């Protein structure tokens, strides 16, 4: 089976609820995208709103309160909104990499593998049925002499020492208190939380979920998205073998990749699109395949999207390709095209800007192309 990148990208837009615009449940959107990056709350809310015809107020916070979504450190060590079921699979795989046991991690963050194991046990105990601020959790922990001298790391906004605890299912973000970050346990947050599954069982499910939104793709791309290539190649091959005939191998302009067999006919029947989308910063459309995916972002334009300190710019997407970036100031949306890229039709760009305005609650925006 051979397909073009134009077909594959048009299919991804459909799978990621970008076209045609419908009204999926917020939890369904987060599940389909395999999580939504959560470092910047407004970006996460925009990513969700741009994929729904109805712009509800605060669906992420409501889902957190109901326990149908959780906010935790997950893929690549970054903060994400995930469903509890999918999140458990992703966390199980991240925990299986045991990155906190590597000497470089111990030197960098000042905690031995034994101390991390003790922190997992103690934090699970403290947060059972409770929700504490970062400061209160740190104060509870440093009363234990095993964690003396760790107060600074525990209070750090980067959360480096807390990430291995999140990956092992000991903590996740709570609902917050007066704008302050809080932590609780997944068991307390999500009714029916069953803990982390066996990685051998979680892996095929997680790979299938990823391919359902970002295929066609190779398993190595899934690993880069999940753990920055921390899983062994033999482990990835085992996931593929376990999925068996649920996967179909396709050739995308000479490159082999996999799709789920249930999606193969739909992919083959999908034609190219010239649709225009304005997506927010940190959108999963680019984070899923990664900023090195040249089929959507040519290498010469990567630094315009992937900025310093890990910042990901808002995107202009035309026909599935990223052709520029944009920003809003004083009710004006300014699009900066990449060199050599043609501007989309004015009416299509203004329609995309109207969607951003509605999703952001800005009323209306004028559009300028730089």
Explain the overall architecture:
- With 370 residues, this protein is of the alpha+beta class.
- It folds into two domains: 1-271, no CATH class; 276-369, no CATH class.
- It is 43% helix and 16% strand.
- The chain is built from 18 helices and 14 strands.
- The protein has helices at residues 5-15, 26-32, 41-49, 59-66, 84-96, 103-109, 113-126, 134-142, 151-155, 163-167, 186-189, 199-214, 219-227, 233-243, 261-269, 284-287, 302-305, 346-360, and strands at 2-3, 36-37, 70-73, 79-82, 132-133, 172-173, 182-184, 247-252, 255-260, 276-279, 315-318, 321-329, 332-337, 366-369.
- The strands form four sheets. A five-stranded mixed β-sheet has the order 10-11-12-13-14. It has a three-stranded mixed β-sheet with strand order 1-8-9. Strands 2-4-3 form a three-stranded antiparallel β-sheet.
- The longest helix has 16 residues, at 199-214.
- It is globular.
- It starts with a strand and ends with a strand.
- The model has no long low-confidence stretch (mean pLDDT 96).
């Amino acid at each position: 089976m051979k397909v073009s990148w134009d077909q594959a990208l048009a299919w991804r837009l459909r799978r990621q609820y970008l076209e045609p615009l419908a009204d999926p449940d917020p939890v369904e959107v987060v599940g389909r995208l395999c999580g939504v990056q959560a470092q910047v709350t407004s970006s996460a809310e925009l990513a969700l709103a741009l994929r729904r015809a109805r712009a509800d107020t605060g669906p992420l916070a409501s889902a957190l309160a109901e326990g149908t979504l959780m906010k935790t450190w997950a893929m690549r060590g970054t903060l994400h909104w995930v469903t509890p079921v999918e999140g458990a699979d992703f966390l199980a795989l991240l925990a299986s990499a045991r990155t906190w046991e590597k000497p470089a991690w111990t030197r960098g963050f000042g905690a031995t593998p034994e101390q991390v194991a003790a922190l997992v046990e103690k934090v699970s105990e403290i947060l059972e049925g409770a929700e504490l601020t970062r400061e209160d959790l740190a104060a509870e922990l440093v009363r234990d002499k095993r964690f003396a001298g760790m107060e600074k790391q525990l209070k750090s906004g980067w959360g480096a020492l807390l990430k291995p605890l999140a990956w092992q299912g000991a903590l996740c973000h709570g609902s917050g208190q007066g704008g302050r970050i809080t932590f609780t346990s997944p068991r307390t947050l999500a009714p029916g939380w069953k803990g982390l599954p066996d990685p051998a069982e979680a892996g095929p499910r997680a790979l299938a979920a990823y391919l359902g939104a970002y295929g066609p793709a190779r398993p190595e791309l899934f690993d880069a998205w999940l753990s920055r290539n921390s899983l062994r190649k033999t482990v990835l091959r085992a996931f593929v073998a376990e999925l068996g005939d649920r996967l179909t191998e396709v050739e995308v302009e000479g490159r082999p990749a996999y799709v789920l067999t249930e999606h193969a006919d739909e992919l083959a029947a999908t034609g190219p699109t010239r649709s225009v989308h304005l997506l927010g910063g940190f959108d999963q459309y680019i984070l899923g395949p990664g900023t090195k995916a040249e089929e959507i972002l040519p290498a010469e334009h990567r630094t315009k999207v992937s900025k310093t300190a890990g910042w990901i710019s808002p995107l202009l997407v035309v026909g599935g390709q990223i052709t520029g970036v944009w920003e809003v100031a004083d009710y004006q949306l300014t699009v900066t095209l990449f060199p050599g890229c043609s501007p989309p039709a004015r009416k299509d760009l203004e329609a995309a800007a109207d969607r951003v305005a509605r999703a952001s609650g800005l009323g209306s925006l004028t559009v300028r192309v730089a």
